[in-house]
Structure formats: structure tokens, C-alpha cells
Design a protein that fits this description.
alpha+beta; 11 strands
């Protein structure tokens, strides 16, 4: 009997995905290895991999797992499954459209979801067809950019979680970096400049067909329905709508370059001994001391170089000293130093649900009619 060689064994997906077929994981592993070995390499032949049959099938299975509403065409997953030619025919037509470069994305349906503070959060819902193509593109691009992303980034990344981000903050606080710049970006997902985002992509991707796909998604019309049922559409000039499959990766990529600048030899990580902990667009900068130079660097870089807007009303400096009092709210948790009830014990870092998180839970309970 022929023994199984290392090449024949099922590959381990470079991003820890366990639901992909071996051939797709092997492709992703090769892309990831190439990106790691050559940090300045620009990938020029990716488009045909996006419409590979096994990649499209994997993309379908992944988006099918989510419970999401239909897009502007009203087509659901069940509609496709119960159609005459089923999923196979749907994917074949999609593959033909991509191969012939006749694929054009549909408009994105926008809905407004309530937030605990009474404001509304816009959510974009692409059609099933567009979700599948975005997921196929994500499967190809993710292992490339994961090779570049820094350890200070935790949001929307495989194998990383909000609790990992909190652990990183706890570690930096334990080393005495207890002055924290708690940043809030105003409408981040809706305000990312398209030209600067494409430029960030082009550091790694030179395949024009892939860049064209992403441009089309960024510029897809947004459809909204008002209270009277009237539909309106507008073409966005900035942003990558929350709800799109590809949006978290693009949003991560854009702020990745803020971290790159931060940790350069001439950045605050060097001259202020500061650290960043980022979860998507939520991030904090921890240092021994938050001086004018550090705050100015953060704000000038984000608003000047990156074209973003800092919400001055919510952005603040929190000083987590040994004296109980100030707390840092991050990802639904509050961190503050508390006095220990044990005799002869020092103050300790208490981590518990934030008021906002508790308000969110109470709102959900009210919706369920339990309170």
C-alpha cells in the first residue's frame, strides 16, 4: 500500500478554516506562503482562481450558513435551491459571468438597525449572487493579507476574538502602560476614501480584474426604502458598507496601514513606547504617558493621511492609575482598578460588562417580552 506523503496529506488551512476542501486550503496555503516569503510581492494572477468551481462551491457553503435577508432582487437561498437547475446551475452561470467578465453587482439594500443609545446603524445587504462572489474573493485574498496583518489587530480575523484583544490590553496595562487614548472614528465603514483603499490593495494586488471587482462593489448603488415605501438609490463616493462579505477584510486592510506607520522606527511605538490594540475600527493606544505629541500624531495621521474623522465627543484619554475611579470601556467591557476586599492585597484590574453592553442586553430582553 502506498504511504501518504506530506504533499498528499490534507493541508492545514493557513487561516484556520476547517470547512474548506483540501484543494482550496492548499491553494490558500500557497498564497499565504508566497506572501510571507516575499513581503513586497504583488499578486498578478488571482482572478481565475476566484471563479474556480471548488472555490465558488466553498463560497456558496460559507454564505449559506448565515441567516440573512435577501437583497434588492428578493432572491433567497431557498429560491435558488428549489429552482429548476438548483445550486449547480446558479454557480455555473455565475462562473460564466465571471469568466466572460460580464458580471455586474446589484445594488445593496440598506436597512437601519437600532443601537442601545437610540441611534441607528446602517447595514448593507447584498444579493445572494454578490455575496457568493465576494466570499470567493475573500477566500483568495484573505491568506495574502493575513500574512501582513499585525498581532495588534484582532477584529474579523480567523482565530482571533474580542477576548484576545482584552487580554492584550490587560498585558499592556500590567506593564505599566496605563494612560489610554480611547479612539472613536465617526462612521468609519461609510467614510473610507475609495482611492486610498484601492491604493492599500495595490500594495499587494496588481491583478486589474480583481481590483475592478472590488471597485464595482465599492461603487454599487445603495437602495433605501422610506416609511412610505418609496425606494431611492444613490451611488456612494466613499466607504465599504457594513454587511458586505468583503467589507470586514477591506476595513481591516485600511487601518492596518495605520498600525504599520505606528510601529515604524519613526512612529510612536518607538519614541513614546506606545502600543495599539485594534478590533476592526475600535482601537486604543496605550502608553506610560499620553502627551500632546502622541495625541497629535494619532489625530493628524488618521484625519490627514487617512482621510477619516475622529469623533471628538467620544474620543478621550483614560488614565487607569492605581487609584480606583476611571474605567476604560472597550468591546462591551469596562476595565478599572478596584480596591481588593482581601487584607494586605493590592488593587486589582476588574473587568466586567460595560453599561452600554448591559443596556443592549436589557433592550433585547424587552424585545422578547421578558422584562
Amino acid at each position: 500500500m502506498k504511504s501518504t506523503t506530506e504533499d498528499e496529506a490534507d493541508p492545514i488551512d493557513p487561516c484556520g478554516r476547517t470547512d474548506l476542501p483540501p484543494k482550496v486550503s492548499r491553494l490558500r496555503m500557497k498564497l499565504n506562503q508566497k506572501a510571507k516569503q516575499e513581503p513586497k510581492f504583488r499578486f498578478y494572477a488571482l482572478y481565475d482562481r476566484i471563479y474556480r468551481t471548488d472555490v465558488l462551491q466553498s463560497a456558496w457553503r460559507r454564505v449559506r450558513k448565515t441567516k440573512s435577508a435577501p437583497g434588492v432582487d428578493g432572491v433567497t437561498f431557498v429560491d435558488i435551491e428549489e429552482s429548476g437547475d438548483g445550486v449547480r446551475g446558479f454557480l455555473q452561470r455565475l462562473q460564466d459571468d465571471l469568466r466572460n467578465k460580464s458580471y455586474k453587482p446589484d445594488a445593496v439594500r440598506r436597512v437601519q438597525l437600532p443601537k442601545p443609545d437610540g441611534r441607528m446603524r446602517p447595514l448593507g445587504i447584498p444579493t445572494v449572487r454578490d455575496r457568493v462572489v465576494q466570499m470567493a474573493t475573500l477566500l483568495i485574498l484573505e491568506p495574502i493579507f493575513e500574512a501582513d496583518f499585525r498581532d495588534s489587530s484582532f477584529g474579523f480575523r480567523p482565530g482571533r476574538s474580542a477576548h484576545d484583544a482584552l487580554d492584550a490590553i490587560r498585558s499592556h496595562l500590567g506593564r505599566g502602560k496605563r494612560e489610554v487614548y480611547d479612539a472613536d472614528l465617526k462612521g468609519y465603514f461609510d467614510t473610507i476614501p475609495h482611492d486610498k483603499l484601492i491604493a492599500a490593495l495595490e500594495f499587494r494586488i496588481s491583478d486589474r480584474s480583481v481590483l475592478r471587482l472590488i471597485r464595482m462593489w465599492l461603487q454599487s448603488p445603495i437602495e433605501e426604502v422610506d416609511e412610505s415605501g418609496r425606494k431611492t438609490r444613490h451611488k456612494p463616493t466613499a466607504g465599504t458598507p457594513q454587511g458586505g462579505v468583503i467589507s470586514p477584510l477591506l476595513a481591516n486592510l485600511y487601518l492596518h496601514w495605520f498600525e504599520v506607520l505606528f510601529y515604524r522606527s519613526d512612529g510612536p511605538a518607538n519614541w513614546a513606547k506606545a502600543e495599539v490594540v485594534r478590533y476592526a475600527d475600535d482601537f486604543v493606544v496605550l502608553a506610560y504617558y499620553q502627551g500632546d505629541r502622541l495625541r497629535s500624531w494619532i489625530e493628524t495621521t488618521l484625519e490627514g493621511r487617512f482621510g477619516l474623522t475622529i469623533n471628538r465627543e467620544k474620543t478621550k484619554v483614560v488614565r487607569l492609575g492605581e487609584i480606583a475611579g476611571e474605567g476604560l470601556d472597550f468591546l462591551g467591557f469596562t476595565m478599572r482598578y478596584e480596591r481588593s476586599i482581601l487584607p494586605h492585597s493590592d488593587r486589582y484590574l476588574h473587568v466586567g460588562p460595560s453599561r452600554t453592553a448591559m443596556a443592549r442586553v436589557r433592550m433585547k430582553l424587552r424585545e422578547l417580552g421578558t422584562v
